[in-house]
Each structure stands twice: as C-alpha cells, then as structure tokens.
C-alpha cells in the first residue's frame, strides 16, 4: 500500500527551526521526484521545495531560499525539510509529494507548522 507519512510539525517561535520528515512506503522511492508543498489557511497549496531522483538537484520557492533545505535518504525511503529562521508567514500545513508520472503521483496527509510567539 502506497503511503507517505509526514512528521515533525509543531509550534515554534519566529526565528526558530523545525525539521520535517516524510517516510515513504509501498513504492520504489528512489525513482520518484519528491517535493514539499504547503497550504496556509484560505490560500492555495504552493510549492516549497523539490528534489529529483536523478542528480538530487533542488528547486526552492523564492520565499524560502536560504532558509529551508530539502534532502533525501533513499536507503531510508525518507525525505526531509530543514526549516530555519521561521517566520509567521511560514505557518501552514506541509505536505510531502512523490511523483514519477501523471498516474504515479502520491501525497501525504500533511503536518501542521505554526510559527507564532
């Protein structure tokens, strides 16, 4: 059964850090591009960062460049998002996505990140 399970969200003060994890089950993780997305209340889901499965090249949203780092460990079927210098506007539900094709496109259930003092 295909599953993506996010963890690591929570409440953090502005300027703080969090590390999100996404564990993958039921598919060949190493052959999928992986991305982190987020959706704030009342807003559309947006891309945060992606990492591909060929050369591990990464793409970041302008809003998180220099603060967030995406990485993957194929041996553990896991992807991570290190988030530093968090801002209130980073508050959102963060989702993990694994995509290989139009029909092999999986999402996790999300983890809440709240940045507030």
Structural description of this entry:
The protein has 117 residues and is an all-beta fold. Helices cover 0% and strands 51% of the residues. It has strands spanning 3-7, 10-12, 18-25, 33-39, 46-51, 58-60, 68-73, 78-83, 92-99, 105-107, 111-115. The strands form 2 sheets. Strands 2, 4, 5, 6, 9, 10 and 11 form a 7-stranded mixed β-sheet that branches. The protein has a 4-stranded antiparallel β-sheet with strand order 1-3-8-7, with no helix packed on it. The radius of gyration is 13 Å and the shape is globular.
Supply the key terms.
117 residues, mainly beta, 11 strands
How are the SSEs placed, and which strands pair?
Blueprint: E1 3-7, E2 10-12, E3 18-25, E4 33-39, E5 46-51, E6 58-60, E7 68-73, E8 78-83, E9 92-99, E10 105-107, E11 111-115
Parallel strand pairs: 2-11
Antiparallel strand pairs: 1-3, 3-8, 4-5, 4-9, 5-6, 7-8, 9-10, 9-11
Question: What's this model, at a glance?
Answer:
The protein is mainly β. The protein has no helices and eleven strands.
Largest beta-sheet details: 7 strands, mixed
What's the rounded overall pLDDT mean?
96
For the secondary structure, the number of strands is 11
Radius of gyration: 13 Å
Estimate percent helicity: under 10%
Poorly predicted ranges:
none
Calculate the terminal CA-CA distance, rounded to whole Å: 40 Å
Order of helices and strands: EEEEEEEEEEE
Number of helices: 0
Strand content: over 45%
- Give the class from helix and strand content and strand pairing: mainly beta
What global shape is seen?
globular
């Amino acid at each position: 059964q295909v599953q993506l399970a996010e963890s690591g969200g929570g409440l953090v003060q502005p300027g703080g850090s969090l590390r999100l994890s996404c564990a993958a089950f039921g598919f060949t993780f190493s052959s999928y591009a992986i991305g982190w997305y987020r959706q704030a209340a009342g807003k559309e889901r947006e891309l945060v960062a992606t990492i591909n499965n060929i050369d591990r090249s990464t793409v970041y949203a302008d809003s998180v460049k220099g603060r967030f780092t995406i990485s993957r460990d194929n041996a553990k079927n896991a992807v991570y998002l290190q988030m530093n210098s968090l801002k209130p506007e980073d508050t959102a539900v963060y989702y993990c996505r694994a995509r290989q094709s139009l029909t092999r496109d999986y999402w996790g259930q999300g983890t809440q990140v709240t940045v507030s003092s």
